[in-house]
Design brief:
The structure holds two protein chains of two kinds. By secondary structure, chain A is of the alpha+beta class. Helix content of chain A is 15%, strand content 32%. The longest helix of chain A has 24 residues. The chains are: A alpha+beta, B alpha+beta.
Chain lengths: 350, 248
């Protein structure tokens, strides 16, 4: 499929699951801010969970299918996807062919990021093993920048399975992103740099997301967190999700494009699954933190991994019903007792 | 040196353990960081994702769904206890050719004036010793170098530049460094190397690494231009030599 970008949207970048392997050389991971949404969206259109898709922020782009055909699915926040002017549900695979127009009406509820996944994945050259855009170094994705009008995207080769049309992700497999549950953290690595009352302040207060919130990280505003001594340390590693507290006492949560090392004390680190939850929150919203155990964090990661597996299983069992509007013929591959058959079918009566 | 073999393990989220060897910027401490990094690189324990060596700690990233943290932590402690205090002297030396002064190093004279030296003397002192690369960070491929002669230390510019070209060599306080990518910054620029510290399309994208020594070598403008051509055409081979052997 070839797509022509007519409007770039507010902040649309190409992302996969990130550029791992170079953190030690100062290269941030980048990648999807809500990785679980990307994984599930890719499964919806028959891709590998790590394939590259468009990360869309609040106001989506406008694209036209210039050539070819394929499946698309929007996963993450429902940003009001439309195909040819008609609403097209999020978390569901839609079949598109040349001339079809993809646009967005804007967010329907809470949340701000979504992934437009295309069958075959977006085919841009991988840089250092990843197609993720890292804006600060203008690297990866499409020339390392956000999409703009006039850009053209190609999708990778795929066995087009038109039968995948209508395949959807049931609510219970989607990541719970719209609740008000506190964001879960593991205390440390420098929790000892804070007083007991400083830790209590951090865990008992509401923090508001400030306007300084982007793919690098979110600056939060709220009650000041008290250090026991020095607020700075000799620079060390900043794992994604780290919550730094500089001397002024207000937390900064580091996300996908966050720098790899730094010298502020880190009171806690978000558990992996809850990074996506924070990434869906917007400036002006308030958040709370709760300290959990390592086992609880791993349990949460396993739930996400199982959701991807469950969706993959459903996909292999899924066959769409031919729709009235669809051309009434097709090809299926059918396996009976281990033998594969190419079946050509044609509807003989409406 | 006993404490260097008994690091503290800190929880840094659900996918990272920070192995803390000390709290000083010190070659012996960083030698242990590098030693443990090499031991883990060799052993590749199950679930290990990657490592970030810094001044006094090694961050070990792992996949908690593929390994048990207790097992990994126990193995890290065993490996740390078995580390010989080899130090950092054995690292390789990377030669970084630099064209000092001129438009490549617009602040060379200011650094000289600040310290009551001639520009030539600043160049002599800057290129006269090896620098140890403790870690990379800040931007992709930026080396945190230790060991600058304090007689050429100079405060940062009062007004940072909006764009500093990749390869610029600068001084900020008691630190010296090389800009791997075009970026804004307030360092006093004394020269520029034609080498690319960061080339995302190369099969080895980074020239520098933690644990490496760096030696600046003054070059002429014609050398600079010739090297820049070789770098652009991909025929340039960086000069990397074992440090210990050459000192014998």
């Amino acid at each position: 499929m070839r797509l022509q970008i007519e409007q770039g949207g507010l902040l649309t970048t190409i992302q996969d699951l990130g550029r791992w392997g170079y953190l030690g050389r100062g290269m941030p991971v980048a990648g999807a801010m809500d990785p679980q949404a990307l994984r599930l969206g890719n499964v919806l259109v028959g891709n590998n969970p790590n394939d590259a898709a468009l990360e869309i922020t609040l106001m989506g782009p406008r694209l036209v299918v210039a050539d070819g055909e394929g499946l698309i699915a929007l996963a993450g926040t429902d940003l009001g996807l439309t195909v040819n002017g008609h609403s097209a549900p999020a978390w569901e695979a839609h079949y598109l062919s040349a001339g079809d127009v993809i646009a967005f009406r804007g967010p329907k509820g809470r949340g701000c990021r979504s992934y437009l996944c295309l069958s075959g994945g977006i085919d841009v050259p991988p840089i250092m093993g990843s197609r993720s855009t890292y804006l600060r170094a203008t690297l990866g994705g499409l020339d390392g920048r956000v999409l703009k009008a006039g850009d053209v995207l190609e999708t990778g080769k795929t066995r087009l399975i038109r039968a995948g049309q209508g395949f959807f992700c049931p609510r219970e497999l989607r990541p719970p992103r719209d609740g008000d549950a506190p964001l879960r953290v593991l205390l440390g690595p420098q929790d000892k740099a804070f007083t007991a009352s400083g830790i209590e302040t951090f865990l008992q207060s509401n923090y508001v997301i400030t306007g300084e919130a982007d793919r690098m990280g979110y600056r939060l505003d709220g009650p000041l967190i008290e250090h026991a001594g020095e607020a700075d340390i000799i620079s060390d590693a900043i794992p994604p999700g780290s919550i730094q507290v500089p001397g002024e006492g207000k937390p900064i949560c580091m996300l996908a494009d966050g720098q790899t090392t730094g010298g502020y004390t880190k009171i806690a680190v978000l558990i992996t699954t809850d990074r996506g939850t924070l990434a869906q929150r917007m400036p002006g919203e308030s958040v709370r933190f709760s300290a959990v155990t390592y086992d609880e964090a791993v349990h949460s990661a396993r739930i996400e991994a199982r959701a991807v597996e469950a969706l993959l299983e459903r996909r292999s069992a899924y066959r769409s019903r031919p729709r009235r509007s669809a051309p009434a013929r097709g090809n299926w591959q059918v396996v009976v007792d281990g033998v594969a058959y190419d079946v050509r079918w044609e509807e003989i009566r409406p | 040196m006993k404490e260097l073999n008994n690091p503290e393990l800190l929880q840094a989220g659900d996918s990272c353990l920070v192995v803390q060897f000390g709290d000083t910027i010190d070659l012996a401490v960083n030698g242990s960081v590098q030693g443990l990094r090499r031991a883990l690189e060799q052993e590749k324990p199950l679930g290990l994702v990657e490592m970030v060596p810094t001044y006094c700690s090694l961050a070990v990233y792992f996949d908690p769904t593929r390994t048990d943290r207790e097992t990994l932590a126990a193995r890290i402690e065993e490996l740390a206890q078995g580390l010989s205090v080899a130090g950092t002297e054995g690292g390789d030396v990377l030669t970084v050719p630099v064209l000092y002064g001129g438009e490549e190093g617009p602040d060379l004279q200011a650094v000289a004036d600040h310290n009551g030296l001639t520009a030539e003397e600043v160049v002599r002192r800057h290129s006269g010793r090896d620098y140890y690369c403790y870690m990379l960070g800040f931007t992709p491929g930026f080396p945190y170098l230790g060991g600058m002669d304090e007689s050429i230390a100079t405060p940062r510019l009062a007004k940072p530049r909006t764009r500093i070209p990749a390869g610029s060599v600068g001084i900020a306080g008691k630190q010296t460094g090389i800009y791997p990518i075009d970026s804004p910054g307030g360092w006093q620029l004394i020269g520029r190397t034609p080498l690319r510290l960061f080339d995302p399309t190369a099969c080895e994208p980074f020239l520098a690494d933690a644990g490496l020594w760096i030696r600046f070598k003054p070059i002429s403008r014609s050398d600079f231009e010739a090297l820049a051509r070789d770098v652009a055409s991909g025929t340039f081979q960086a000069e990397r030599t074992p440090r210990r052997e050459e000192q014998q």
